[in-house]
Amino acid sequence: MASSSPEMPDEAPDGASSEGGFSEAARPATKKAPRPPGKAPAGKEWDSDAGCWKEIDDLPISDLEKRRLKQIEENEARLLALGLGPSPLIDKAPRRKSHKRTWEVDEDVKGSLRARKKTSYTEEVHHGVDFRVGGEKAQARRRAKEERERAEKQERLRLLQLEQEEKRAAREAARAEREAERKQKEEERTRKAAERAEKEAQREAARAAAAKAKAEAEERKAAEAAEKEARKRQKEDERAAALAEKEARKLSSQQERQQRLEEAAARFQERSSEHAARVAERKAVYDAEYEAALARGETAEAAAEAAAKAEAE
Fold it and tell me: Which stretches of sequence are listed as region Disordered (predicted)?
């Protein structure tokens, strides 16, 4: 979009400041072009600064508004292609019929004595004989509709009666079937009671045999437990004897170890005393040598001092 601010001249006119531009008193007023009367063209908006219609695409509008304007333009073009756009009445009326019998839809809505049909808005509407013929046809359609509804109602009643008869027969059959099932279940219960009595006798015999086998098994387990206890006592005695022997060997080994430790301590004490004697002897020799060295040093220093004094004199 073109800029709405006027361009500044290269040279400042009369009344301009020394720094360039107009002063507040000499600044010219910006005049905007008035908007022309009438409806704005589709997809355009008036730009007062430029003084002309501008495309809406050039203006800051949202994408939703752009899609809506595009849809409006497509709908207008589609209506014009179908002949449904704004056009004079003569273009819609047939050539062989009088224009007085042709009415616009908006004009025909007022004062109409019959219900509007679901027809196209471009269908022409006639008045006069059509009201009487339309009324007769409406009565015939109403009577036919009533007869059809009556026949449908009778058919529904007949079907309902048939359905009730079928349900009654089904209930009778279900009742007979339940009675047969009840008798069959009673016989089944009697048979199962006899089977339970026989099974109970078999279980009693099995329980007696199991009790006898259990007593024998307990006796056998008692004998095995006594034998196992005897073996256990024997193993405990053997373990006690082995433990006593082990303790004796351990005590003997401890005594031998103690004796070896005492001998080692005696040898260590002897070596320690010998080492201490050798260390004392070496220390005495070292001290004697150190004293002799100190004496020699003092003698040398005294001689040096005496020589120095003699030279100085």
Answer: 1-52, 85-104, 133-282
**Which residues, 6 or more positions from 58, have their beta carbon under 8 angstroms from its beta carbon?**
1
CA–CA separation, 249 vs 243, rounded Å? Answer: 10
Dump the DSSP string for 290-311: HHHHHHHHHHHHHHHHHHHHHH
83 Ramachandran zone, left/alpha/beta (phi>0; psi -120 to 50): left
Q: Where are the domains of the chain?
A: 44-125
Q: Identify the bridge partners of residue 46 per DSSP, sorted by sequence position.
A: 53
Distance CA 38, CA 50 (A): 18
Q: Residues 154-179: what's their mean pLDDT?
A: 92
Q: What is the pLDDT of residue 85?
A: 62
State the Cα–Cα distance between residues 16 and 26, nearest whole angstrom: 7
Answer for the pair 40, 89: CB distance below 8 angstroms, yes or no: no
Tokens 């905007």 label which residue?
Answer: 32
Do 16 and 26 form a contact (C-beta atoms < 8 A)?
yes
* Residues ≥6 apart with Cβ < 8 Å to 97: 124
Question: Which residue type does 200 have?
Answer: E
Q: What angle do CA 171, 175, 177 make, to 5 degrees?
A: 115
Q: What is the DSSP letter of 126?
A: -
Question: Average pLDDT in the 167-174 region?
Answer: 92
* Cα-Cα end-to-end distance for the chain: 121
What's the pLDDT tens digit per position in 26-77?
Answer: 444 556 778 887 777 766 778 878 888 877 655 567 788 888 888 888 888 8
Angstrom distance (rounded) from CA 303 to CA 309: 10
Residue 16 CB partners (closer than 8 Å, separation 6+): 22, 23, 26
Measured distance CA(52)–CA(44) in Å, rounded:
10
What's the token pair of residue 276?
Answer: 């201490």
Encoded amino acid at 209, one letter: A
Listing DSSP states for 122-177 in one string gives TS----SHHHHHHHHHHHHHHHHHHHHHHHHHHHHHHHHHHHHHHHHHHHHHHHHH
